[in-house]
Amino acid sequence: NAGVMQNPRHLVRRRGQEARLRCSPMKGHSHVYWYRQLPEEGLKFMVYLQKENIIDESGMPKERFSAEFPKEGPSILRIQQVVRGDSAAYFCASSPTQGDWAKNIQYFGAGTRLSVL
Amino acid sequence: KNQVEQSPQSLIILEGKNCTLQCNYTVSPFSNLRWYKQDTGRGPVSLTIMTFSENTKSNGRYTATLDADTKQSSLHITASQLSDSASYICVVSARGNNRLAFGKGNQVVVIP
After folding, report:
1. Cβ of A31 under 8 Å from any chain B Cβ?
2. What is the rounded radius of gyration, in angstroms, for the C-alpha atoms of chain B?
3. What is the pLDDT of residue B47?
4. Residues of B in Cβ contact (< 8 Å) with A110
5. Nearest chain B alpha carbon to A93
6. Window from A23-32, A92-101, B21-30, B89-98 with minimum mean pLDDT
7. A102-111, pLDDT tens digit by residue?
8. Which SS3 state, helix, strand or coil, does residue B62 take?
9. CA pair distance B13, B19, nearest whole angstrom
10. Gap from B17 CA to chain A (nearest CA, Å)
11. Nearest to A115 by CA among A21, A6, A35
12. Which residues, 6+ apart, have CB-to-CB distance to A35 below 8 Å?
């Protein structure tokens, strides 16, 4: 049973380009979360999605960032017109159900490290 | 101000020794507290999860404690090994939503 798969592991973009980060949750998981980790900082929540629905995007920057989790295929975090400040590690996590939140562990992928030149 | 504060920021310990990491939080209303281990260049991996009614939980050589009254938790590593070198992250969730508040982590380096 493969874990949470993120790709690419490393992504280099020039200022103004678009970055697309992909996340395939663990088999049987229908909840996906995206986090951003800046150097020397803790992870910061960005967005929580279920299949075809954005549940909570309160951590997403208002512009240039979007996320989706289609019925088929991986979840995508899209950053348009990247700037140097977008350079960070982006982690995806998945969980099976929302139900018993106290027992609901989020399983993390290895992350995508975005570098903006 | 961060809702989860961890100390010390970093520490170096000799292989075989014990160490204790601290976490203070202000998240309210409290649901649960987790400790994650994050190896360099990898995603966090869950070590323990504790709810309000639990005050200690062990996972091998890792023992976590929780005092929900003082809003403090600790992670104790017994007989450290070189593979324990990592960042240990305290994560607290509030009742009623799915968001997690992350500490910046305790960076542990175990030396032979």
Report:
1. yes
2. 13
3. 94
4. 41-43
5. B43
6. A92-101
7. 456 788 999 9
8. strand
9. 8
10. 26
11. A21
12. A43, A44, A45, A46, A90, A91, A92, A93, B102
